[in-house]
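Quick start: what a row looks like.
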Amino acid sequence: MAHFDLPQDQLARYRPELDVPDDLDDFWTRTLDEARSFDLDVSLVRVETGLTAVDVYDVTFSGFGGHRIKAWFVRPAGDAVVPAVVEYLGYGGGRGLPHERLAWAAAGYGHLVMDTRGQGSGWGTGGSTPDPAPAGQGVGGFMTRGIEDPHEHYYRRLYTDGVRAVDAVRAIPGVDPARVAVTGVSQGGAVTLAVAGLADGLVAAMPDVPFMCHLPRAVVLTDSYPYREVADYLRTHRDAEARTMRTLSYVDAAILARTATAPGLFSAALMDLTCPPSTVFAAFHHYGHPAGSDIDVLRFNGHEGGEGLRWPRQRAFLAELLADPLR
């Protein structure tokens, strides 16, 4: 795929106006207050995996609506107090199996991999968390679940789960609650950005080729799914564009990340048809903590992004932040 979006020199200064709802702050304050009215009730069950260098726990905590969300927590064996990384997953995937993600624990971190409600059947080794909320009117997938009202939208629930995952990892014995970072690829990058704007006290946010950014542009720029789900919906609901875009503005990760307080490490791929680079740059240039933040540009990659090359870059970025008390 050739470069199809803005030229790289224009991307470097692409900072479009974002359609921020007047009541956005109140919407999310009420959402998180409601979620926190339920006991977090973190359950940790030690799992025998045959892995001797790490300890593995099956985690359950209360997310949006008090719904029980699953996660894996993997940490270096022993009882040393460690920093932690919370990871969110790509579209259609679930938490899989704990031995599939060992790098952070091997590097001395606690690693919480949050399951994605209602997902886990699209790729990987599955998920364990249902989404008990009704789907409402929409097309297949998750982009249009609850599209008629931001209070009912799927990503309101998922982003809230993401914030509560940070609360949960901070409550785990042996985790330093002041040294927690968030990361994820694609949909996981969207949750990373939303959580960066909604949760306090994070040390870093590391979204790769993030989804759900600058949605009015994304849904007309690419023909690829999942953004195509919105176009499919509007092809039938021809008079619903204004209402649809209003709903999506409450879950646009570029909008939510404007209030982030932790340095961010982004990546964008210039041949990415799934999450077009201009939408990622829109999020980067509106990101709330520009000092110390950076974006890596992959000129010849699509939505696979940097893959295995990203972790060493993230590890070095996070290690530098944790070594700097002023960050």
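That is the whole record. The chain has a mean pLDDT of 96. Residues 8-317 form a domain with the Rossmann fold fold (CATH 3.40.50.1820).
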